[in-house]
């Protein structure tokens, strides 16, 4: 009887210094798949990202989670207790529910993030290339990708900004009709400012200008971001070129004053100017907000936007959960049918044996029956047998995922002396489809 298991760790269970020890680098994936399959694991998929590493397995017999954990750690030459208390494990239906939640972005650090769905798809394809995916994990991952896509197309779980850079992009779209006509000026080399500039460029901003007190640092950043260097001494002259300005320096005083911004706006003929002050202490004089067509947001403003979008995404969680439960029910029925197949085959075999025996006894008692009459009686008897079995068979398939149901069904419905062999072919073959 096939059992599905996932053993993993993520950002909720372990810090990065632990997660990085057990993460599967892409270049080592072929080696890892060979290693696990050499241990007798029938099907395996390795999902490894910056926030999680998970080992999915499907085996004919229930695999102890400790065995998978031990193999996982042994691959990296780590002691068994390396992530003691910092991992999770789910079996069968709960393993499927977990993967569906991962694919939908409900288990991510940023609720509803879109990148994880692509990572799930990549993990599945890598396992396929390694020949490590069979019927069970293949079906599980295909359904996970399907429900992940539906979550993002049928709900707003991934809508809106979930980072400071994303918030800047969202706000920019409210100020400018088309980001492709906008020039971005980055002042400073702070990480958050740099990430915000990247977000705007990725969203379609036309040009990036990089200005920093240290020219070499400006040149380095401009090279990485495909931007143009603006010497710090020429900041005022270039300020009017920018539609969006990001200030991210360690300066203790204002880099941009009201007078500087006012002059730039005049040179821009009062076209909108969007200022993003990510610095603490602030680099842009708050009084610039008094100027017409100037829009200033500081780090608190942007983080408030992020929180607002988060609240909107949280409202979508019940809708996503409903999609997950619907797909989970379908997968559970599919899985139950396959788990129940050996018992159903045995039951069909026994029903066929007893039907044939009853027919032979009847025909012995009624030797004068014609061949046509015998065929008609046999057809009616076999149809009646299948009609009587129909509801029990469906119930077995529906409840096969429930602990103990299959064993009870076996004891109640299948005589111990029933032998393996051919079943009623049509029904048995239908189970394989």
How would you sum up this structure, described in words?
The chain has 433 residues and is α/β, with parallel strands linked by helices. It contains 15 helices and 10 strands. The chain has helices spanning 16-19, 29-38, 65-75, 92-103, 115-129, 135-154, 164-175, 191-202, 215-225, 235-239, 258-267, 299-365, 371-399, 405-413, 425-432; strands at 3-10, 43-48, 52-59, 88-91, 183-187, 207-211, 228-229, 244-247, 273-277, 294-298. Strands 7-6-5-8-9-10 form a 6-stranded parallel β-sheet. The protein has a 4-stranded antiparallel β-sheet with strand order 2-3-1-4, sandwiched between helices. The two termini are 18 Å apart. The model is unreliable at 419-433 (pLDDT under 50).
The 3D shape can be described as elongated
**Helix/strand order, N-terminal first:** EHHEEHEHHHHEHEHEHEHEEHHHH
Largest sheet: 6 strands, parallel
Helix tally equals 15
- Class by alpha and beta content: alpha/beta
Radius of gyration: 32 Å
Helix share, percent: 40-55%
* Integer average pLDDT: 90
Please report the total strand number as a whole number. Answer: 10
Low-confidence stretches: 419-433
Topology:
Blueprint: E1 3-10, H1 16-19, H2 29-38, E2 43-48, E3 52-59, H3 65-75, E4 88-91, H4 92-103, H5 115-129, H6 135-154, H7 164-175, E5 183-187, H8 191-202, E6 207-211, H9 215-225, E7 228-229, H10 235-239, E8 244-247, H11 258-267, E9 273-277, E10 294-298, H12 299-365, H13 371-399, H14 405-413, H15 425-432
Parallel strand pairs: 5-6, 5-8, 6-7, 8-9, 9-10
Antiparallel strand pairs: 1-3, 1-4, 2-3
Helix pairs in contact: 4-6, 4-12, 5-6, 6-12, 7-8, 7-12, 12-13, 12-14, 12-15
